[in-house]
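tool_call: predict_structure(chain=1)
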Amino acid sequence: MEAEIEALHENPESLIAGISPDHFFYEYLQIITSMMLEIRPDEISDAEMERVMTSSEQLIHQLNGIHKRQNAPADKKTMEEVKKGFHI
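tool_result:
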């Protein structure tokens, strides 16, 4: 884990590698990455950490909901039609 953290310090852009600059969240990720590299973890108060964790959990929950909606499993009828298409 320490090697991964050191690699991120050397190349913080690797955190957003593979994400297209026109992606809706790209600029936010750049800002978050930049700030995280500048923040000194040992100087974060418990109250600040609680607020950050709460916000992070809310964001993850929202993104997970979008991901599930966009990647919903096919319904049973669709699966049966697909199976018929592959029957030899």
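agent: The mean pLDDT is 82. Proceeding to next step.
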